[in-house]
Amino acid sequence: MLDKSSLPRAAVIGAGPAGLATLKALRDKGIPARCFDAGSEPGGLWVFGAVHSSAYRTLHLNTSKSRTEFADFPMPAHWPDYPGHEHIATYLAEYTARFGLNEHISFGHTVTGITQTPGGRWEVTAEGVSDSFDAVIVANGHNSVPKLPDYPGTIAAEQLHSHDYRGPEQLEGKRVLVVGGGNSAMDIAVDASHVADRTLLSMRRGVWVVPKHLLGKPSDTLNGALAKRLPWRLRQRISQTMLRVTVGSLERYGLQRPEHGFLEDHPTLSDALLSRISHGEIRPRRGIERIDGKTVSFADGTSDDVDVIVWCTGYRIDLPFLDPALLKPSAEMMPLYRRVFHLTAPGLMFAGLMQSTGAALPVVEAQGKLIAAYLSGDYTLPSPQRQRADCAQQLKAAHQRWGDRRPAMRIDFDGYLALMEREMRRT
Q: What's the CA gap between 352 and 356, in Å, rounded?
């Protein structure tokens, strides 16, 4: 346990939701901290037009406000169930101001290097400035460096990744192909369907499409209520039955049957997608097989000519400031105890390096509080052997539930928060 008379000094990388929640938790414990952020204001990807933001004008939460808000800072009651990006950017700016975090953030500072000294301290270099810390918390997010697929053929159509999409005017009057099955793909396809000459939506596999409201309530609140009483397998059966009754068969809309059960992948929330498909304004397609110029051939043998392809194909984790040896076997598969603590580099921690079945903000808030408890001496990590064994057990369970789709990063929103509560009670 650390001596409270000499609290360690911490660096936080990133002033998005994960960095802000961690910085607040550290300040609550009296731990001196400095946050580095490449942007000019707090909020990360929620700040429209910011340096690493992927926000577009029609972007809204895909989790309800009551399941997304920080416990320490509830969202206004009069806000809509699914606030837009302007609301969330304002919310994060007010959170920063309310808890006096701005004075601890160095804006306009892109971190270029983090190295551990022989004495165990951490040197952080940003924009030519170096500073020394006892601990580093990496909270810079993982949704800013686009991941692009590679298909046979030569592409002559215009290409755009969802990271660079800002509004439907970019697609007006064009023959548009949106590629992907996540929330951004659904949003952009719906946007395109109102202004494009034609809108196609290509998905390699089926996904669960969930209305934003079920039984008059935000759909994620129903699953949250069940999570307090039932294991996820039983919740899965109940949720799938409810979706079959309310939404019906996705094949009826020309979409593929989901390969994985509900709660075995992040659901896609959309009220508008199925309506636009049923009106003929969005035409579903299977996965791409090859592209020849502007002609795209699909796995079902059909082909279409397109003017622009919007790749909604996700992002890759980019941590160029860390020694690659610290990320083994890879940034996606790196084992972290409780998805926070590095197993072999004491003082190196992560907030937000996960993929949740629900919202991110309550998760990173819980992670920040655990980090602060550890650095203040109120929480002690188990032995390295126990940490490694727990990580191996968690990975095995994740493989069983999610297969090979980033299993090390996957967490069940409700299960993880319950786990973190138990971990905090161990302090």
A: 9
What value, to the nearest 5°, has the Cα angle with vertex 57 and ends 92 and 87?
A: 25
Give φ, ψ of 230 to 5 degrees.
-130, 145
Report whether the peptide linkage leading into residue 258 is cis, meaning its omega lies within 30 degrees of zero: no
Position of tokens 């079902």?
Answer: 300
What confidence tens digit (pLDDT) does each residue in 242-291 have? Answer: 899 889 999 999 999 998 888 887 779 999 999 999 999 999 999 999 99
Q: Which residues contact 49 (CB under 8 A, 6 or more apart)?
A: 55, 166
Q: Are residues 123 and 157 in the same domain?
A: no
3-state SS, residue 158: strand
Give the closest residue to 39 by CA, choosing from 137, 106, 135.
106
Q: Report the percent of the chain where pLDDT is more than 90.
A: 85
For residues 65 and 18, state if they share a domain.
Answer: yes
Q: Looking at the structure, do residues 256 and 294 belong to the same domain, yes or no?
A: yes
Among the listed residues 96, 70, 75, 86, the one whose alpha carbon sits nearest the alpha carbon of residue 15: 96
Alpha helical stretches, state H, 33-182: 65-68, 85-98
Q: Which helix (H) or strand (E) element contains residue 297? A: strand 295-298
Contact 19, 351 (CB under 8 A): yes
What is the extent of the structural domain holding 412?
4-145+316-425
Tell which residue, 213, 207, 155, has the closest CA to residue 186: 207
Pairing of strands 135-138, 348-350: parallel
How far is it, in rounded angstroms, from Cα 304 to Cα 285?
A: 10
Residues 6+ apart with CB under 8 A from 158: 174, 307, 308, 309
pTM over 0.85: yes
Hey, which bits of 104-221 come out as E strands? Answer: 105-107, 111-116, 122-126, 129-133, 135-138, 153-155, 158-161, 175-179, 198-202, 209-210, 213-214, 217-218
Q: What total number of domains does the chain contain?
A: 2
Count the Cβ atoms, other than its own, within 10 Å of residue 216: 5
Distance CA 401, CA 127 (A): 42
Instruction: Look up tokens 């539930």; give the residue.
Output: 401
